[in-house]
Design brief:
30% strand; 25% helix; single chain; alpha+beta
């Protein structure tokens, strides 16, 4: 099993939801108001007057063979809207109940 953390501009919420549905990913935890700033480019998303945009984040644990197709779809979405910001990180899930 692998755990995937996806952080993205809230403007991409509908598109991310479509990707999760397309990949039959039903189990996840979502945070709706997440602040952040990209590593290299992009504006901060702080929900303030100066930086009004906000992020959202999703954490899901899926079978390893489902990770690459999910990341591929997310990468395509990010390429279409690079200024919005989307990142995904994967790590091993050692145990779960």
């Amino acid at each position: 099993m692998k755990t995937v953390f996806i952080a993205y501009n809230q403007a991409l919420t509908e598109a991310v939801n479509v990707i999760l549905d397309r990949h039959s990913i039903r189990g996840y935890t979502k945070w709706g108001n997440v602040q952040g700033r990209g590593t290299h480019t992009g504006e901060p998303h702080f929900g303030t007057h100066t930086w009004p945009a906000m992020n959202a984040a999703i954490l899901t644990t899926i079978d390893e063979e489902r990770v690459a197709p999910l990341l591929n779809s997310l990468k395509k979405l990010d390429a279409k809207a690079e200024q919005q910001g989307l990142r995904a990180f994967v790590w091993n899930c050692e145990q779960m109940i």
